[in-house]
Specification:
By secondary structure, the protein is α/β, with parallel strands linked by helices. It has 13 helices and 13 strands. The strands form three sheets. A seven-stranded mixed beta sheet has the order 2-10-9-8-5-3-4, sandwiched between helices. Strands 1-12-13-11 form a four-stranded mixed beta sheet. It has a two-stranded antiparallel sheet with strand order 6-7. Strand 8, helix 7 and strand 9 form a beta-alpha-beta unit. Helix 1 packs antiparallel against helix 10 and helix 11 runs parallel beside helix 13. Bound molecules: pyridoxal-5'-phosphate. The site of pyridoxal-5'-phosphate has 14 residues, from helix 3.
Length: about 375
């Protein structure tokens, strides 16, 4: 067998749909000594983590924690705990991730009522209202606030209000929105929400912050059937994340990953979450001006564009893979390809977390112009 040496990844600039570049402060935090996940010092850090997540999500929800797995596990945590066999769930789909919500509903033994919008458009609240009127027995409305596959931002506040008016709970995907776009869990009354560490928090992938409001907790407590997932069953996870002095082993926490998320959230607090939202918007405006100068047009209509995920149509006659390949080879720059129905048709350029910077905007525009000319 040939001798395999240590893995040394190249230095890249990550301007795709995520992961985004991890800030050096976060990488340094993750390299700190591993201690036991029941060590009192670690437990103190967990309490701080909860306060920091409260700050980022703008909530006081007691049931707020980082799931020890990526955003998809945060998604599953919401569905397997809140959806029971026989439930009816209205699922809004305007891209790839709404489709995954449907899968989650059906695998939970429930029926998904689909509200579909064109990819690239936000979820249409009128269609949600119609679905709610047609299905008064629906229990939950699920939607993606920031659809990473297209770059569309949906109106989470309005959809949540419509759902509540009909007595439904909401499950919100905030994987790409947390830290990058306005998000008010308590003020909007969001019942269940999940995010990811690897987008606008500039943290390494693999953790999924989640938060559950009082009505969601009530529904979980009133379940008639046990949650079908052992690992994601919140009633068990809470033995570890529940707080106080009585934390018990549930699974071995990703200790160094949690140091990283803690540091990422400290950095968000230092900057101020509202400032972070504004910085993402300002950098999007700068990138937009450059894209327009290059003749590139946005997929999403103005007013519904995510500042942190800029999708543009690939110009006629341009080889998608060749351009992305050259950007990577010559400049170490990663931009994203289209997903699902949009594969081969669009590029997705991320301005996420500390990657939402003037330096990255200029670098991306310069490299793209050189490769396209
Ligand atoms: N939801 C959205 C909107 C996403 O963008 C992603 C990942 O890109 C996910 C869910 C799944 O997250 P993960 O890849 O961390 O499992």
């Amino acid at each position: 067998m040939t001798t395999i040496r240590s893995f040394n990844p190249p230095i890249r600039t990550l301007m795709g749909p995520g992961p985004s570049d991890v800030h050096p402060r976060i990488l340094e935090a993750m390299a700190r000594p591993t201690i036991g996940h029941l060590d009192p010092v670690f437990v103190g850090m967990m309490d701080e983590m909860k306060s920091l997540l409260h700050y980022a999500f703008r909530t006081r929800n007691e049931l707020t924690l980082p799931v020890s797995a990526p955003g998809s596990a945060g998604m599953e945590t919401c569905f397997v705990n809140l959806v029971e066999p026989g439930d009816k769930v209205i699922v809004c789909q305007n891209g790839v991730f709404g489709g995954r919500m449907k899968e989650n509903v059906e695998r939970s033994g429930a029926t998904a009522i689909m509200v579909k919008d064109e990819w690239g458009k936000p979820v249409d609240p009128n269609k949600v209202a119609e679905a709610l009127a047609a299905h008064p027995d629906a229990k939950i409305v699920a939607f993606v606030q920031a659809e990473t596959s297209t770059g569309a931002l949906s109106d989470a506040e309005t959809i949540t209000r419509l759902a509540h008016d009909q007595g439904c709970l909401v499950i919100v995907d905030a994987v790409t929105s947390l830290g990058g776009s306005p998000l008010e869990v308590d003020a909007w009354g969001i019942d269940a929400i999940y995010s990811g560490s690897q987008k606008c928090l500039s943290c390494a992938p693999g953790l999924s912050p989640v938060s559950f409001g009082p009505r969601a907790v009530e529904k979980i407590k009133a379940r008639k059937t046990p949650c079908q997932s052992w690992f994601l069953d919140l009633s068990l996870v809470m033995n570890y994340w529940g707080g106080g002095t009585k934390r018990a082993y549930h699974h071995t926490a990703p200790i160094n990953g949690l140091y990283g998320l803690h540091e990422a959230l400290v950095m968000l607090q230092e900057e101020g979450v509202e400032h972070s939202w504004k910085r993402h918007t300002d950098m999007h405006e700068a990138l937009k001006a450059g894209f327009e100068a290059l003749g590139l047009s946005f997929v999403v209509p103005e007013g519904s564009r995510l500042p942190q995920l800029n999708s543009v149509t690939i110009p006629q006659g341009v080889d998608d893979a060749a351009v992305r390949g050259l950007l990577l080879k010559r400049y170490g720059l990663e931009i994203g390809a289209g997903l699902g129905d949009l594969a081969g048709k669009i590029w997705r350029v991320g301005l996420m977390g500390h990657g939402a910077s003037a330096k990255n905007v200029v670098f991306c525009l310069t490299a793209l112009e050189a490769v396209l000319s």
